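Supplementary Methods S3. Input chains for the assembly prediction are listed below.
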Amino acid sequence: MPDPMRIRAQFTDGVTTVRVLMSHEMETGLRKDAQGMIVPAWFIQQVTAQLNDRTVLTAQWGPSVAKNPYLQFRIKGGAAGDRVTISWIDNRDETRTDSAVVT
Amino acid sequence: MCSRREALLRSAQLASMLAGLGLLPRIVSAQAAAQVQGQAAPPTLVVAGATTAWNAVAFEAKSVADVMNALGAAMPVASAEVALTAPDIAENGAVVPVAVSVALPGVKRILLLVEKNPATLSAVFDVTAQVEPALSTRVKMGQTSNVFAVAITGDDRVFYASKEVKVTLGGCGG
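Predicted C-alpha cells for the full assembly:
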C-alpha cells in the first residue's frame, strides 16, 4: 500500500484524541475514467482501532466515505506512551496497519 | 418547527430506510402486525444486522426503503442528544466533513447515512464503552441531501439527527 497512515494521538484531560488520515482511493465503482470505462469499486470496508492491543472501535465503511479518509475519535482514558493501532481491510482484501504512540 | 405529523413521517422514513438496510433491531412481523391493529403483544426481539463481517446488503441499499417494510422495533426518534455537525453548504461534494456526537449513555453503534447517495449508508461505527460516542470523518455526497446520524444504544433504542447539506456542483471548490 502506498503511504502509511498518519496517526496522531494526544492525551489531554483524561481523554485520548486520535486523529487518523488514511491513504486510500475509496473508489465508489460509479466513476468513469477518461475512456468511459467504469473505474471498479475499491474502498476500505472495515477499520479497527486498538489501544494497547485491545479493540476500542470498529467501523464498516461504504464507498461513500471520502477519498483519503479522515477519522477522529476520542478514547476515554489512556495515557501517554500507550500504543494506538489502526488497521483496515478493503474490498480487495488488502490490509494495512499502522500505529502511533500517545503523546 | 416540524409538526408532529412531519416528525413522525420522517422517523418512519428513516426507519424504513434502516430496516431495508437490515441494521435496525427487528421485531418479528407478527408483533408488528399486532401493533398496527392496536393490540399489545409481547415483543420478540430479533437483532438483525452485521456482526463482524462486512454487511454487503446494507451498503448496497440504493434508496429509502418502502415504509411498509419497516418492521423495525424502534422507530428512530429524533433526538437532541444526537448532535450532527456538517457544513450548510459543501463546496466539494467529494469531501464533506461530518461530525457526530451522542450525549446518550450506552451507545453501541453510530451510523452515517446520506439520503440521496446511490448507496445510502456511508459508515457504521461499532463503539465500545472505552470510546466516547463522538466521531468525525469525511463523506462523499453526490447531491444536496439530508445527512443522517443514527445512534443505537445498548438496549436497542434508535435515535437520529439529520441535517440538510447543500452540495454545489461545478466550478472550482475552495
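Chain A touches chain B at residues 15, 26, 28, 30, 45-46, 49, 51, 54-67, 69-77, 91 (CB under 8 Å). Residues 33 and 39 of chain A are 6 Å apart (CA to CA).
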